[in-house]
Amino acid sequence: MSDLIDRTGLPPRFWERKPLRDLSRREWEALCDGCGKCCLNKLEDEETGEVALTRVACRLLDDATCRCAQYEIRHQFVPDCIVLSPSNIDDNLYWMPATCAYRLVHEGRPLHDWHPLISGDPETVHSAGVSVRNMTVPEFAVDEDDWDDHIIEEPL
Ligand code: SF4
Ligand code: SF4
Fold it and tell me: Which ligand 2 atom lies nearest to the CA of residue 71?
């Protein structure tokens, strides 16, 4: 499958050569590994703040591609979808997937070998078993009271 994220013509290792806040829009978008894990619903314990991941996906997540079906206009359908940026990463770290490329770069860590920017192949995030391909259920198919029946460990 061709890369659904435009990673063409970008400077080599751009994410290692400048801080996140200096990335261009295209570079920022290209940093996403396409795992889809951020589009799974989470359950947060109000008392402990602990966050549990579920396999119940946002209604716009395409389970086959792990991409948002309406990324550019998603807020028309999902107004509270977070727009991650260099200025709000710290506030969102508590729920971000352990392998999320934005988290890794923010924390000064290298991207994994399976990241498409390293491998040159958008399939490697899936073949490495890190993505949510073929493992989600859409949120409209599961009553919200039953989401805790679908808690999973993050695929790593
Ligand atoms: S978890 Fe991070 S790297 Fe994975 S799809 Fe979401 S934003 Fe992209
Ligand atoms: S609206 Fe799109 S980007 Fe936002 S959580 Fe849903 S599928 Fe993911």
Answer: 2
pLDDT at position 1 is 67
Looking at residue 135, its pLDDT comes to: 97
Task: Kindly report the pTM of this predicted structure.
Answer: 0.96
Q: What is the C-alpha separation between 131 and 9, in angstroms, rounded? A: 25
In this structure, which ligand is nearest to the CA of 5? 1
Find out whether 39 and 23 touch, Cβ atoms under 8 Å.
no
Give the separation between CA 57 and CA 68, rounded to whole angstroms. 10
Atom of ligand 1 at shortest range from CA of 101:
3
Ligand 2 and 43: CB distance under 6 A = no
* 4-60 pLDDT, tens digit each: 899 999 999 999 999 999 999 999 999 999 999 999 999 999 999 999 999 999 999
Whether 102 lines ligand 1, by a CB cut-off of 6 Å, is: yes
Cβ 78 under 6 angstroms from ligand 2: yes
